[in-house]
Amino acid sequence: MPLALPAIIESWFASRGWRPRRHQMDMLAAAARGDHALLVAPTGAGKTLAGFLPTLSDLIAHPTDRLHTLYVSPLKALAVDVRRNLLTPIEEMGLAVSVETRTGDTPSDRKARQRVRPPHILLTTPESLSLLLSYPDAALLFSDLRTVIVDEVHAFATQKRGDLLNLSMARLQAINPALRRVALSATVADIDAYRAWLAPDGDIDTVIPVLGEAGAEPNVAILIPEGRVPWSGHSGKYAAKQVMAEIEARQTTLVFCNTRGLAELIFQELWSANDANLPIAIHHGSLSIEARRKVESAMAAGKLRALVATASLDLGVDWGNVDCVIQMGAPKGSSRLLQRIGRANHRLDQASEAIVIPGNRFEYLEARAALDAVEARERDADDFRVGSLDVLAQHVMGLACAGPFRAEELLEEVRSATPYSGLTAEAFDHVLHFIEGGGYALRAYDRFKRLTQDVDGQGNVLWRVSHPRFIQQHRLNAGIIVDQPALAVRFANGRKLGTVEEGFAAQLRPGDSFFFSGMALEVVRMDTSDLTVRATSKQARIPSWGGSRMAMSTRLADRVRHFLAEPQEWHRFPPDVREWLEMQKLRSALPQPGQLLIETFPHEGRHYLVCYSFEGWNAHQSLGMLLTRRMESQGLMPLGFVANDYALAVYGLKPITDPQSLFSADILDHEFVDWVEQSSLLKRAFRDVAVIAGLIERQHPGKRKTGRQVTFSTDLIYDVLRKYQPDHLLLKAAWADARARMTDVGRLGDLIDRAATTMLHVTLERVSPLAVPVLILIGREHVAQTAAEDALLIEAEALVAEAMRAD
Question: Which of 49, 237, 277, 401 could join 269 in a cystine, given CB atoms 3.0 to 4.6 angstroms apart?
Answer without folding.
Answer: 237
